[in-house]
Amino acid sequence: MSATDPASNCALCPRLADFRDENRQHHPEFHNAPVASFGPRGAALLIVGLAPGLKGANQTGRPFTGDFAGDLLYATLLEFGLAAGRYGRHAGDGLRLIDCRITNAVRCVPPENKPTPKEIATCRHFLEGELAGPPPPRLVLALGTIAHASVLKAKGLGASQLPFRHGALHDLPDGSVLADSYHCSRYNTNTGRLTPEMFQAVFDAALARLRA
User: Which helix (H) or strand (E) holds 123?
Assistant: First the structure.
């Protein structure tokens, strides 16, 4: 176990450990373990999602890899020069991130994609490690309200102080910026809550602030 990544057999959250074991029985070929962050340490941009998807990162072992959310996220990163190579929906596709790192508020797949508040709090130690650097990220992009709240709590701030709002850019006391976006899940895009254009607009604004 490191400051940023849990051990492969992490049992800090018994319900999540049991769910991993259950999935291992049904899908022994899957990763079925905590999912480590992806991208270079010390990157200026840290993207924080919710948790691994059952047949996405829990299968492939890389954040946002193997499901629809990853299709949209990695296409956007490639478009903005934050990734290089080809995204192939598997961890061995050769894709690399450029001054960008991706992690999740919760590192293990939760039942029904819904971690409990206690599980989110337990896993926050690893997010704190990501935010500490060195060097710490200058821009953090939170995908969804849970990621937003967990980032703020990891920085010792209350979520009520800076409410989540899609497209918002929050200046934090330590000099970093927290950007908000709806999660790039299939549900959000199918319902029209988030469009690719809306997602790209978040990156436009956030990167403009980062590079100013």
Answer: helix 117-132
pTM > 0.85: yes
Q: What residues does 180 pair with on adjacent strands?
A: 142
C-beta of residue 66 within 8 angstroms of C-beta of residue 60: yes
* CA dist 186 → 1, 112, 212 (Å): 32, 15, 32
Secondary-structure percent of the chain, ordered helix, strand, coil, rounded to 5? 35, 15, 50
- 207 backbone dihedrals φ, ψ, rounded to 5°: -70, -35
Strand runs (DSSP E) across 107-207, as ranges? 139-143, 169-171, 177-181
Q: Residue 104 pairs with which residues in a beta bridge?
A: 49
User: pLDDT by residue (tens digit) across 141-191?
Assistant: 999 999 999 999 999 999 888 999 999 999 999 999 999 999 999 999 999
Which single residue is written with the structure tokens 């409990």? 116
Residues 43, 54 contacting (CB under 8 angstroms):
no
H/E element, 104 = strand 100-104
Q: How many CA atoms lie within 13 A of 157 on its CB side?
A: 17
Tell me the residue length of the chain. Answer: 212
- DSSP annotation of 98 reads S
Q: Is the alpha carbon torsion for 202, 89, 82, 100 positive or negative?
A: positive
